[in-house]
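Subject: Interface between my chains keeps coming out wrong

I've been trying for a while to get a sensible model of this assembly. When I model each chain on its own everything looks fine, but I need the whole thing in one frame so I can look at the contacts. Pasting all components below, labels as-is. Any help appreciated, I'm running out of ideas.
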Amino acid sequence: MSESLAARAAALDAADELAGLRKLFALDDTVYLDGNSLGALPAHVPGRVADVVNRQWGELRIRSWDESGWWTAPERIGDRIAPLIGAAPGQVVVGDSTSVNVFKAVVGAVRLNADESRTDIVVDATTFPTDGYIAESAARMTGRRLVPVAPADLPSALGPQTAVALVNHVDYRTGRLHDLPSLTAAIHEAGALAVWDLCHSAGALPVGVDGHGVDLAVGCTYKYLNGGPGSPAYLYVAERHQQAFDSPLPGWNSHVDPFAMTGGFAAADGAIRGRVGTPDILSMLALEAALDVWDGVSVDSVRAKSLALTDFFLECVEAYVPRGSVTSLTPAEHAERGSQVALRCADAPAVMEKLIKQGVVGDLRRPDVLRFGFTPLYVGFADAERAAAVLAAVLAPDTA
Amino acid sequence: MSESLAARAAALDAADELAGLRKLFALDDTVYLDGNSLGALPAHVPGRVADVVNRQWGELRIRSWDESGWWTAPERIGDRIAPLIGAAPGQVVVGDSTSVNVFKAVVGAVRLNADESRTDIVVDATTFPTDGYIAESAARMTGRRLVPVAPADLPSALGPQTAVALVNHVDYRTGRLHDLPSLTAAIHEAGALAVWDLCHSAGALPVGVDGHGVDLAVGCTYKYLNGGPGSPAYLYVAERHQQAFDSPLPGWNSHVDPFAMTGGFAAADGAIRGRVGTPDILSMLALEAALDVWDGVSVDSVRAKSLALTDFFLECVEAYVPRGSVTSLTPAEHAERGSQVALRCADAPAVMEKLIKQGVVGDLRRPDVLRFGFTPLYVGFADAERAAAVLAAVLAPDTA
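Reply #2:
Try treating it as a single job with all components included. I did that and got this:
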């Protein structure tokens, strides 16, 4: 059985039209299944960062705000991310952390739907915690009520009292993919606005924010977009909402004429309205460079490979790992699966530690979840097979 | 006259105990007087950034959150900045832009002084605009009123209606230094909280936040602290306020146990409570490296040199520049002067363009202000003399 899965892995890798992308990344022989937490380093990024530091900062200094395009980086890089989430240009701006963008998006959405009888901000009860914490603050500061609801229960929880719903596209813990088109339609049906968190989907599967009528969205860039540790997040504001979008963080970068330095605030048009303060250029331009690996890559191919990879990994786990020692939390249905596999497992912290020591890097979600992210740009089928084999060895009853 | 000022410059440089620091920076023969906008590159920073990118991100990847100290960087770097502003450890945290930190500080201060009869947030009417825009948003979201007041009028404008006053330590346009000790005392006398913006003073002169009883403060790190373009800002929350500090941006990084990933928010103790989302590591660790140039440097010596430099520059301008062609907006009194000289001048945009072409880099504040920043770590007296000489040549009536 082992030989046959290894042989199948080799054949799948040989037939993989994306396999050539792996050489664009600085990777060793580690099986890196944590790209859903921190994407790997694209090999050309160090040279670009060195140029930003040495020439743009060190030699041109202040002139780089114009000459090196620093000032316009947030919207320029936003337009690089836009096609990856199905957005036309002019609707995405990069900057700040995901948490700060959740605040902008939720407060902004409440203000776009300001009917006082709409008292509720509904938040995904299974969300990555920061969205819930920030949405709670947004509710408190806009005089609304926070209502946590599991995504499955969302349609029945929505109603004329709902102002805004904030939902995660993919559950960070289980890898479950929520049905963005139908949930967005249900949110609109209730007269509410849909704010989506794309942290665990952008770069792994098609999102289609424009096509499905999403109102606002946020996402990080350090997972499947490989922007580097803590690289800036992004905010999507659908064009139809931009003129009325009223940011709670109207910093000088979102002013219509920032260098006039006038006392009265007047918001810029377009996605720029989502900017706040001076952009963190080193992190931002590392991200810009990292996005080059997407040139010519179709998100549909990425999605197809992602599903094939997670299918194959689950098959290998089923074949290799002692029965009953792990339980998959990740839906078997493709339509419900993101680009990760989450396995519940006794003694998970010690198991993950052993996996990492043996060159298979996933991560842990306390108390008992092993999380394996599959980044189709640089993870192959042989990686999936090896990860399952090492996991099986770690979990074998005779292992010390 | 010219020869004697040039000779004096040489003597002053020879006697300057900080002169040796210039070699720590990547500088050419440009006279760089824009360090109050973007500090010069410390020469060792590119190597450190390359290590962060290649080894920490590229090789260790996710392990660097622990092994390379990424997770604790915001408070660790905060403690490096603390002595530069006169703060004991544990009160400064780095992250986000200045604008975002102004929001945390002003909303936080209102919540610390939550008596509803205190209806007013007073903001420096001469502030760098973003502080005013953000304070306006903070006022709107906390049900307070924004009252712009010039710093000189502050004492008479304060009263039982004042909740918070947000003041700039140094005026970004004129270089005027406001009297932080006496204004803080007046704000406290009125029963209000003092929030200071230190963008144009930290790293140029002693601040003494602890000693003068400042309540909260914010500052950027890319001016006199040389952290690089858009490097993260910092937030100071005095220890006595930390237990009650209630951030409007309670992201997961400010949770007491972020990796428990629980739905309920419980704030961490100490300065960490000012964190929000995942820190932008590349920009943050470039800043950390840049702070090394301060090792063993006393802020008092920096201040003494700064005043000597701006005195000498004004003297050279007086001697060289055609009478009546420029007017200094910068106070002659040392107690009222920051570390820059602002000259009002006809046709200022064209003049600054010519200066830059001739290797003297200052900047422009529209419509008619030439701004020259003096960074004592790397600007010398010969630079000041040359800048005045080039300015004189540009302004000479016979210049084309």
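Reply #3:
Confirming on my end. The longest helix of chain B spans residues 299-320.
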